[in-house]
Amino acid sequence: MLEDPTFWVAVAFVIFVAAVGKKGVSAVNHALDARGDAIGAEIKEAEKLREEAQHLLAEYKRKQRDALSEAEEILDHAKLEAKRMTAQAEADTQTALRRREQAALDKIAQAEAKALQEVRNQAINVALAAAAKLLRSNLDNEGLRALADDSIGELSRKLN
């Protein structure tokens, strides 16, 4: 058996496989360890990125809530301001209507007074014309002169 060349080839093959296998297994183990370390680093990096993403998401959600709250406050303020402006416009309109109504009433009163004065003036003119006609028809020149003299005397007495 020791003299058989197949035996020595088999022994050499086993030694070769053991030597190369040990280095090969070591190289494979080293490659697998390196790959495992790389995967672990990537997992840690992914976890770190996930935590940052969750932090950013929470921050953006908070900012969104704050923005919605601020928008609601602005909207509430705008509604209150619109109500105030509406009430002010109504008050201004009522004031303007009262002023216009009073101006119209004043114009009506002035028109009534003017019409009444015109009626009085017309009545005076008609009465004077009627009196003059009556006096002309009932009095002669002597009577007219006496009436004129009395009127002039009365006028001078009232003026003094």
Task: Describe it.
- This protein is mostly helical and 160 residues long.
- The chain has one domain.
- Helices cover 96% and strands 0% of the residues.
- The protein is built from 2 helices and no strands.
- It has helices spanning 5-138, 141-159.
- The longest helix is centred in the middle third of the chain and has 134 residues, at 5-138.
- It starts with a helix and ends with a helix.
Which stretches are poorly predicted, pLDDT < 50 over at least 5 residues?
none
Multimer state: single chain
SSE order: HH
Radius of gyration over C-alpha positions, nearest whole angstrom: 63 Å
Average pLDDT metric: 87
Strand content: under 5%
- How many domains? The number is 1
Helix content: over 70%
Estimated structural class: mainly alpha
Q: How many beta strands in the DSSP annotation? A: 0
Distance between the termini: 182 Å
Question: Overall 3D geometry?
Answer: rod-shaped
Number of helices: 2
Largest sheet entry? none
Question: Quick summary of this structure?
Answer:
The protein is mostly helical. It is 96% helix and 0% strand. The model has no long low-confidence stretch (mean pLDDT 87).
